[in-house]
Amino acid sequence: KATAVFNAQSVQGNTGGQDVSTTSSTITKISTQPTFNQFMYHRDPSLGESGPFPPKAGQETTFVVYWQIANPGNDINKAEATAVLPSNVSWDSLVGVSGTTVQPTFNATTSTITWKLDKVPFGVGSFASRYEAVFKVKVRPVDNDIGKALTIIRNTKLVGVDGFTNQSVTVSSPNLDTSKVVDKPGEGKVQ
Length: 191
Prior knowledge:
By secondary structure, this protein is mostly beta strands. It has strands at residues 2-8, 20-26, 35-41, 61-70, 76-84, 89-98, 105-107, 112-120, 131-139, 151-162, 168-173, 176-177. It starts with a strand and ends in a 14-residue tail after the last strand. The protein is 0% helix and 48% strand. A hairpin with a 5-residue loop joins strand 10 (151-162) and strand 11 (168-173). The chain is elongated.
């Protein structure tokens, strides 16, 4: 909040020589700026690996995907993270969550992963543990995929409403493909 006060003493003219004063205030509300990161492993440090890497046509490979949310600003209400699996990628299993008990769900009809958090409080990832979801997905490339990096997860975003400013909050995360694994970056072209 910023306030400006203007005072003038003994102003001549229409005021009859009286003091004149005016006050104006402006309130600026700043919306939260959360982070929503996603990354994946083929050989996860604690879960191991399944299937060949680089992926091979005709063989199934499993990837472990991590979603992490931090919110240093205002509460985020109606918070929901979503992503879509391409038609050649299938949901395997939920590994777990931390920082919250709310678990993501998978809708097989729409191939959508949804994590309905409802509220992400101020300080998550700063003063409290970040929210994290870990899940597995799998892909079985075909001969037409040879030489390509395959998209594994797309259209990933976190949406909600800032609890202080009432403004919409949207944070998108880049698509993940087989060339963007943490443990072997750039090596994910199908063989």
